[in-house]
Amino acid sequence: MAPALELFLASTSPRRRELLTQAGIVFAVCEPGPEYSPGGGDEHQSQHGDPAALAAERAARKGTFAIVPAPNVPVLAVDTVVDLDGIELGKPHDRAAAAAMLRALAGRRHQVHTAHFLFDPATGQSRAQLATAVVECAEPDPAELQRYLDSDQWRGKAGSYGVQDSAQRFFRVVSGAYDTVVGLHVPAVRALLAQRRAKR
Questions:
Q1: Known catalytic residue at 94
Q2: Is position 1 within any domain?
Q3: Where in the sequence is the domain holding 91, given as residue range(s)?
Q4: Is residue 133, in this structure, part of any structural domain at all?
Q5: How far apart are CA 183 and CA 13, in angstroms?
Q6: Lesser CB count within 10 Å: N end or C end of the chain?
């Protein structure tokens, strides 16, 4: 007998799927709701406002409006933002934008916020948790920077990098959890599921 489905993941991110699989959480993927409200920008634009709050708002939209195959299974939606001095760094639209973001991060520390939103379609109830980590970026030499840009591993990633990317070694987590920076904090997901079970 197959184990019971614990949640639907409203995400297209292979990294989030991998983290849940490694954690042994039984899930299926569903289509997330729209990340941005109409006229509210897109993933390539840095939005105004507190970056942590922006992540929470997007996670809530993705979860609340997800296309769910079974209403009795909760939906998990997640959003990750890179926060440099209170300013969100979005996903780069091209190599030049990626290079500019990486130079802005070089030699500095920044925060990464990952917002988790668990929505119960049957009841309309929701729960949320935010995880934050601090990341330090060393000063890459020109060859290191070019090698990373050539790898294309920065594509589709907030702040133009993935801490797990094999083509770079200049980012390191100095506080908080590594998986928060990758894009999903497993203990936060477990806590949300436990809260849902306790309320049933």
A1: no
A2: no
A3: 7-199
A4: yes
A5: 9
A6: N
